[in-house]
Amino acid sequence: MDPQGERTATVLRETLDQLYDRDSKRTISAVGRASIHWIFKDDLLPPNILLRLPRSTVDQLMALPNGQQRIDQVFRVAQKMRIGRGVIATLGRQDDYMKRVRGNGGSRTRLKREGIIVLGDYEEHKRIAEALGIPVPGSGEFVSVRVVPAAKAGKGIIELEGCLWRVAKEGDAVVEAPDCPHHIKRT
């Protein structure tokens, strides 16, 4: 597995003429290989963070009693990692799983007091991620990070709500995070 994601994905609807039987083992025949529809070929698939986290961490996430707790926790334990919409759906286990990420009661609101911001695929969020030097969320992705006030402007610093912010280091005190503007979404 590539550290950023798988490199191929295919779809093949098998029929008997596409299979080759050799020693009672079926493999795809030349006709079958010619009928493969490549979704991704030699290209990166979106990463699935649940496949990259330690198994014990994933087990702990899945054991939490509700979707909101699971989504909050993945943003805590997978900071600075791109988290796809599919992971949010898996953890949320409900029809409107995206509401679990949003402000107004979702992870953005709940994690703010822990100093964690959750960036999405909005243009402003991408700008914030770039300025902080963390992975930039792609379409349908999120990246969380804990931030603290910065003393002065410079590389890895962003101004939000009139204050300078940087990525928190181990040992930095927890400070409530700023709101991140997101009114302009990338198309």
Account of the protein in words:
This protein has 187 residues and is an alpha+beta fold. It has two domains: 9-40, no CATH class; 49-167, Winged helix-like DNA-binding domain superfamily/Winged helix DNA-binding domain (Arc Repressor Mutant, subunit A, Orthogonal Bundle). It contains six helices and nine strands, in the order E-E-E-H-E-H-H-E-H-H-E-H-E-E-E. It has helices spanning 30-34, 55-63, 67-77, 85-92, 107-112, 123-132, and strands at 9-11, 19-22, 25-28, 37-40, 83-84, 116-119, 141-149, 157-160, 163-167. Strands 5, 6, 7, 8 and 9 form a five-stranded antiparallel beta sheet that branches. The chain has a two-stranded antiparallel ribbon with strand order 1-4. Helix 2 runs antiparallel to helix 3 (67-77). It is elongated. The mean pLDDT is 83.
Short descriptors:
187 residues, alpha+beta, Arc Repressor Mutant, subunit A, 2 domains, five-stranded antiparallel beta sheet, two-stranded antiparallel ribbon, 26% helix, 21% strand, elongated
Shape: elongated
Can you tell me the residue ranges where pLDDT is under 50 for at least 5 consecutive residues?
none
CATH superfamily of the largest domain: Winged helix-like DNA-binding domain superfamily/Winged helix DNA-binding domain
SSE order, one letter for each helix or strand: EEEHEHHEHHEHEEE
| Number of structurally distinct domains | 2
Mean pLDDT: 83
**What structural class results from the helix and strand content?**
alpha+beta
Largest sheet: 5 strands, antiparallel
Radius of gyration: 21 Å
> How far apart lie the N and C ends?
30 Å
Percent strand: 15-25%
How many strand segments? 9
- The CATH architecture of the largest domain can be named as Orthogonal Bundle
